[in-house]
Write a structure and sequence with these properties.
This protein is of the alpha/beta class. It contains five helices and five strands, in the order E-H-H-E-H-E-H-E-E-H. A five-stranded parallel beta sheet has the order 2-1-3-4-5, with helices on both faces. Bound molecules: ligand CA2.
Length: 145
């Protein structure tokens, strides 16, 4: 069974504790459970990780490239400025989907730029937890194409 790495950037470990009007009330544990359930349905293993550390996140992206693992990534604030993360993601060897809980295009102007989008197969944003589930379905489709 192929394993999908679902990578989450800074502060996403705090989901459910603040700003539910923007990010919803689900915790990262709730997102993990929802992704594992859907993964089982789609025949995909799910390995969901979160870090506040850019170097650790880039290390996981390198690991995915080496092992040819598909990736769903919510880079959080790194989305908007981390050229290092973007360069790491550009080395990908399997499908890559960018995901956001909120819709950054409808928020502050600094969130309108994603330095990651251009190296991803696609982006899902604005649907809360459902964004992750749609991204997983997209990965399943890309793997079967
Ligand atoms: O909408 C998304 O998923 C974001 O990637 C979330 C990032 C934000 O910087 C991006 O522009 C859009 C921020 C995650 C912050 O997570 C929080 C968790 C708990 C309470 C408050 C924020």
């Amino acid at each position: 069974m192929p394993t999908v790495l679902i990578l989450n950037g800074p502060n996403l470990g705090r989901l459910g504790s603040r700003e539910p009007e923007i990010y919803g009330s689900a915790t990262l544990a709730d997102i993990t459970a929802a992704c594992q359930d859907l993964g089982a349905e789609l025949g995909l293993g799910v390995d969901l990780r979160q870090t506040d550390d850019e170097a650790e996140l880039i290390g996981w992206v390198h690991e995915a490239a080496e092992l040819r693992l598909p990736v769903v990534i919510n880079p959080a604030a790194f989305t908007h400025y981390s050229y290092a993360l973007r360069d790491a993601l550009a080395m990908r060897t399997a499908p890559l989907v960018e995901v956001h809980l909120s819709n950054p295009a409808a928020r502050e102007s600094f969130r309108h730029t994603s330095v990651v989008s251009a190296v991803a197969d696609g982006t899902v944003a604005g649907f809360g937890v459902e964004s992750y589930l749609l991204a997983l379905r997209a990965i399943a489709q890309l793997l079967s194409a």
